[in-house]
């Protein structure tokens, strides 16, 4: 988003911010080219600010059906390249992964014996099956995150209900099953190195995605001229 | 059962927006006001913004951010050479269709 518009967005009312956030979530889940998506969001923020300054209703300005408005935007916007799409999913996976291991480490440090493992300084000893279990659950969380965003305009109760049911199903399924079928290995992880490594991967993933998105947008503009 | 106006509106509006932009460099809200003045009373900025995106994507118009008296910089649109050709083609097709429809329905819409 253009810096000037980003700063101006602060003056938006709570209701207008909520409408813009919903549009952003919906568009993000529909694989629009990252550069084009940012430009669209910047335009929408600009429209909302002007609308507010004129004293008009932004909700009415974009029409009675906000989902239809988003669908029209998607129909007329460049889509993500397959590599950009893969990196988009990987971004969320790595983001959750960056938080997961330190999270588990913290739980074990605060409640020793919660996992079949132990914390020793910066080292985390834990069984592979347990780590695998939480990564599978994390994968469900990432997929669920996408599903929730894709259904931004559906009734919240229905979407979250479905998400919670699937999440619990996986939680119960993985609990114990992996420990039962796996020949367990004890992992010896330096939590600091692990976190830094995954965070570095996340940065590389985001930069690569941005470069791909920019090159597609640049190529598109060049072919237009 | 009533006729679905949106189907008819989509292509027509695109041509009208392009015609307005061809007359002078303008921005979304000004286009909306002009369209409303000419009788497109039930359209909103939300209807025309995706069409502007489409026209920009196909290279018929280009945009530029310029200062605005209301808030941040505003996006102004101007027509390209490609857009001029597209508009000429739209006007030509529109004339053919409206003439044919006028013959079938009647000039006053009396059938």
Description:
The complex is a heterodimer of chains A (225) and B (111). By secondary structure, chain A is mainly α. Chain A has two domains: 73 residues, c-terminal domain of poly(a) binding protein (Orthogonal Bundle); 143 residues, no CATH class. Chain A has nine helices and three strands; from the N terminus they run ααααααββααβα. A three-stranded antiparallel beta sheet of chain A has the order 1-2-3. In chain A, a hairpin with a 2-residue loop joins strand 1 and strand 2. The longest helix of chain A has 34 residues. Chain A is elongated. In chain A, 23% of the residues are buried. The model of chain A has no long low-confidence stretch (mean pLDDT 82). Chain B has 111 residues and is α+β, with helices and mostly antiparallel strands. Chain B has one domain: Arc Repressor Mutant, subunit A (Orthogonal Bundle). In chain B, strands 1-3-2 form a three-stranded antiparallel beta sheet. In chain B, a hairpin with a 7-residue loop joins strand 2 and strand 3. In chain B, helix 1 packs across helix 3 and helix 2 packs across helix 3. Chain B is globular. Chains A and B meet through helix 1, helix 3 and helix 5 of A and helix 3 of B.
Major beta sheet, strand line-up of chain A? 1-2-3
Largest interface: A-B, 30 and 21 residues
Q: What is the makeup of the main sheet of chain B?
A: 3 strands, antiparallel
Parts with pLDDT < 50 across at least 5 consecutive residues of chain B? none
Number of strands of chain A: 3
Helix content of chain A: over 70%
